[in-house]
Amino acid sequence: MGVCTSSPEKGIYVVTVDFPPVNALPVAGWFALADAVRAAGRDPEVRCVVLTAEGRGFNAGVDIKEIQTDGHGALIGANHGCAAAFAAVYGCEVPVVAAVQGFCLGGGVGLVGNADAIVASEDAAFGLPELDRGALGAATHLARLVPQHLMRTLYYTARTVTAAELHAHGSVWRVVPRGELRAAALELAREIAVKDGRLLRLAKAALNGIDPVDVHRGYRFEQGFTFEAALSGVGERVRAGFGKEGT
After folding, report:
1. What's in the keyword line of the UniProt record (predicted)?
2. Which residues have C-beta within 8 Å of that of residue 47, sequence separation ≥ 6?
3. Burial (Cβ within 10 Å: 0-12, 13-18, ≥19) of residue 55
4. How far, in whole angstroms, is CA 107 from its chain's centroid?
5. What is the 3-state secondary structure (H, E, C) of the chain?
6. Residue 200: how many other CB atoms lie within 10 Å
7. What are 169-216's pLDDT values in tens digits?
8. Whole-structure pTM over 0.85, yes or no?
9. Beta strands 160-162 and 125-127: pairing type?
10. How confident is the model at residue 244 (pLDDT cuts 50, 70, 90)?
11. Between the CA of residue 234 and those of 132, 138, 147, 152, 203, what are the distances in Å?
């Protein structure tokens, strides 16, 4: 359980997240993920990182129960941890391929929205249930996956969008049966990793430099409203119903 790493092939580094039962990461988990991705990017032998997860779904966001138990301290920790993990994926010196199965919610959208490429299983679903969880955030990253009006509709309704729909929008590279997900992600990583390592790093820096969206500033701006919701009491009121029948 936790975050583990492996290097199945030369030039490819796999970072795997495993926090049963649903990969809702605690504060420490987000920072561990950030550390693993940053370490991979710093390794001169690595040319592509594959971000994967064990279990039913790729990521269910933050651990709401930790926030309910520990209050504002956990909320601040989760926000800083998410920001660190998202920034690590975006700023990784080499391309990051996200391999997504099952649910990809909240912080999961933040991760894949900052990845360079996405391969998803046929059962993958992406969404931001933030309004149902007493928080805000990651619209910055959802906007990198879908057009603006669809992003707003998904955000307000907390509905999800399928991997096939994202493929139609061009944000998911391939959609494959779940059993073929790892192989498909490694196939793409392999195609990237055969390129010159130094040139790949220059390409990643160049593409980040011309990105029309400042993902760091956008996400931090959104987080300010999460704090406002918490301080006003509305966040706690909504979270109090989390997991209860009929909510």
Report:
1. Lipid metabolism, Lyase
2. 11, 12, 94, 95, 192, 193, 195, 197, 200
3. middle
4. 5
5. CEEEEEEEECCEEEEEEECCCCCCECHHHHHHHHHHHHHHHHCCCCCEEEEEECCCCCECCECHHHHHHHCHHHHHHHHHHHHHHHHHHHHCCCCEEEEECCEEECHHHHHHHHCCEEEEECCCEEECCHHHCCCCCCHHHHCCCCCHHHHHHHHHHCCEEEHHHHHHHCCCCEEECHHHHHHHHHHHHHHHHCCCHHHHHHHHHHHHHCCCCCHHHHHHHHHHHHHHHHHHCHHHHHHCCCCCCCC
6. 20
7. 999 999 999 999 999 999 999 999 999 999 999 999 999 999 998 999
8. yes
9. antiparallel
10. low
11. 11, 19, 29, 21, 44
10 Å Cβ neighbour count for 17? 25
Q: What is the pLDDT of residue 131?
A: 92
Give the CA dihedral 1, 79, 112, 104, nearest 10 degrees. 60
- 42: tokens are 């710093």
Place of tokens 């710093």: 42
Alpha-carbon dihedral sign for residues 220, 224, 225, 230: positive
Write out the two tokens for 136: 């805000």
Two tokens at 243?
A: 């997991």
Which residue type occupies 104?
C
Smallest Cα–Cα separation from 105: which of 137, 66, 67?
137
Q: 45 with 11: CB under 8 angstroms?
A: yes
| Inter-residue contact 200 to 94 (CB < 8 Å) | yes
